[in-house]
Amino acid sequence: MEAGVRVDTSGALCPVPILEIAKAMRRLPPGTLVELVSTDRGLEADLPAWCDATGNELVRMERRGAHYVGWVRKAG
Known about the structure:
By secondary structure, this protein is of the alpha+beta class. The chain has a single domain, classed as TusA-like domain (Translation Initiation Factor IF3), CATH 3.30.110.40. The chain is 30% helix and 33% strand. Strands 1-2-4-3 form a 4-stranded mixed beta sheet, with helices on one face. The longest helix is centred in the middle third of the chain and has 12 residues. The relative contact order is 0.27. Belongs to the sulfur carrier protein TusA family. Pfam families: TusA. It comes from Corallococcus aberystwythensis. Keywords: Transferase. This is Sulfurtransferase TusA family protein.
C-alpha cells in the first residue's frame, strides 16, 4: 500500500506513536494516506481507538515481525 507520508515510531512506547501520527495529520490535506510503523504492540488497540475518536479512517493494520503497521486516511 503506497502511503503519502510514513511515520516511523520504532522503539517508542505509548503514547508516542499516537502523538506522532496526530502531529503528522495536522499538517496534511484531507484524503492523505499515512503509514504508521511502531514496535509497540499497544498500537493494535490504540490506533483503531484513535481513528474512532478523530474520524480518520483506519484502512489496514498488519504485523511485520516485530513491527506493527497501520495505514490511516485523513478525514475531511
